[in-house]
Design goal:
Bound molecules: zinc ion
CATH architecture of the largest domain: Distorted Sandwich
CATH superfamily of the largest domain: Glucose Permease (Domain IIA)
Strand content: 25-35%
Structural class: alpha+beta
Low-confidence stretches: 1-46, 93-104, 341-354
Radius of gyration: 35 Å
Shape: extended
Number of strands: 19
Number of helices: 13
Mean pLDDT: 80
């Protein structure tokens, strides 16, 4: 194609010379102003496919732009024709090929995929014409809809709306229908409603139906939920959030993992590439159909070579395999890692430790307004403003510990107030001596600054004595399952 195009320039024509000038000029641009005359020596460079491609495109642009008008008519047609053809050639095959490639490379063994089924192509029983059977209408609730409006649209009288809505206490659920939900109305040939079905959750359906005495009664039908165990694992490369998504954890589950280990690991600044996690969780099924991911039952996080393991007990709390609570008196980081995760790479090479020694605190760079939470239960001993610390909050925890939070844009607590661990105390800002929005966090033990990310904290409480045996039994099974899953995954890789 290129040669067809090139040969056009060499055809005798009054403007040929001018076209050539543009051609060599563009070439000149890419060869860093080599002499225009040295055409032969430039061929090597021209033959480079990449440069060839760019040159070709720039030629087309230049020719079309500047010398198009000067070419004789047949040339113009030919060039546009060739260019157009090439353009189509360029665009067309790429789409189906890449679509096919995507399909092939992204399907994973053991993963669920939704299939689209076109019901229109299925054989349908033809209507007999005699309207003897009841009509079943599936109605999708629209924005601003209520039962009366839906009934009216389906040819049902206000009297019927009234009777259905008064079908017992359960019928009050119909006052809370939401857009997007579905009501199923069964209507007889006389236009009278016989049954209304309203599935208001993934497992529960409200059913209102007319009995033999012609009165409406209501009941709720609940499907049996089947719980199954699933397992996933992943490795942190740039952020825990991304690694979690890659491991097919839901947003909730990712937050849950960070929550389970948040007392031991600083998810905001303490993660490193190569950290890994192993998660066992429940899934809900109804009639063999997957409904949702549910609770995490066991998890392990390896942070900077140190492994932390958590097992869920039937009180909903997580414990170490030995039965100590994962919950401790201090969170490792007073900010949610999600707000910090974008700076993970930078932190990796940032000598946090050194920086801490220099100014006796840890800096969490985050957007202005990022929520900051109390690292532990305590009492606010200071909530004030000065020109160095900006808006700042100090919290006393028991006798020994004080945590300090500086440079807030807004303080959310007052002096003397008691706060709970995880409670919002202010938002990140750059007030006082701060170059940009960040939280400066200090941790003091008996009045001495300590590194909050490495300081030894009070030991967590153990599980109640009478629960201990039962818990250890569960933990033993869970650990075994976790290790089996890890082994299977290892064998698969
Ligand atoms: Zn600082």
């Amino acid at each position: 194609m290129l040669f067809i195009l090139l040969s056009l320039f060499y055809l005798p024509s009054p403007s040929n010379e001018r076209a050539m000038t543009f051609f060599t000029l563009t070439k000149n641009d890419y060869t860093h102003r080599k002499s225009v005359q040295k055409t032969s020596s430039s061929w090597k460079i021209i033959c480079n496919p990449y440069i060839l491609c760019i040159r070709f495109l720039s030629c087309v642009v230049f020719v079309i732009k500047k010398s198009f008008k000067n070419l004789p008519k047949p040339h113009r047609w030919l060039i546009s024709g060739v260019a157009g053809f090439l353009f189509i050639l360029f665009l067309f095959p790429s789409e189906p090929v890449s679509a096919f490639k995507n399909l092939g490379s992204t399907l994973e063994i053991g993963k669920r995929y939704d299939l689209e089924i076109n019901f229109d192509t299925f054989p349908v029983q033809k209507d007999s014409g005699l309207k003897e059977i009841n009509e079943v209408n599936s109605v999708v609730v629209k924005k601003g809809d209520n039962l009366a409006m839906i009934f009216k649209r389906n040819g049902l009288s206000p009297q019927q709306t009234y009777r259905v809505s008064k079908a017992g206490e359960l019928a009050k659920k119909l006052l809370k229908i939401m857009p997007g939900e579905v009501l199923e109305l069964q209507i007889d040939p006389q236009g009278q409603i016989i049954t209304l079905q309203y599935p208001f959750s993934s497992t529960d359906t409200l059913i209102i139906s007319k009995d033999e005495h012609n009165t409406f009664t209501s009941k709720i039908e609940t499907l049996e939920v089947d719980t199954r165990l699933n397992y996933t694992q992943g490795e942190v490369t740039n952020s825990f959030w991304n690694a979690g998504l890659k491991a097919n954890l839901t947003d909730n589950q990712i937050m849950q993992v960070a929550g389970i280990f948040g007392w031991d690991i600083d998810f905001a600044l303490g993660l490193r590439a190569g950290d890994s996690f192993y998660v066992m969780f429940e899934e809900h099924y109804i009639n063999g159909e997957f409904i949702e991911n549910a609770d995490i039952v066991a998890a392990q996080f390896v942070n900077q070579g140190e492994a932390y393991t958590a097992i869920r007990y039937n009180d909903g709390n997580f414990y170490t395999p030995e039965g100590r609570s994962m919950r401790k008196s201090f969170l490792r980081a007073p900010v949610n890692f999600r707000y910090i995760s974008s700076s993970f790479k930078k932190n990796r090479f940032h000598p946090v430790q050194k920086r801490w020694k220099a100014h006796r605190g840890v800096d969490y760079a985050a957007d202005r307004g990022t929520p900051v939470i109390a690292a532990g239960d305590g009492r606010v001993i200071k909530s004030a403003y000065d020109k160095y610390n900006g808006h700042h909050v100090f919290i006393q925890h028991g006798e020994k510990y004080v945590t300090k939070y500086l440079h807030f844009t807004k303080r959310k607590v007052k002096r003397g107030q008691t706060v709970k661990q995880g409670q919002l105390i202010g938002t990140v800002g750059s007030t006082g001596l701060a170059s940009g929005p960040h939280l400066h966090y200090e941790f003091l033990v008996d009045g001495v600054h300590r590194n909050p990310r490495t300081v030894n904290l009070p030991k967590a409480e153990s599980i109640a004595k009478k629960e201990k045996t039962k818990f250890i039994d569960i933990a033993t099974v869970r650990l075994q399952q976790l290790n089996n899953n890890k082994r299977i995954m290892l064998a698969m890789n």
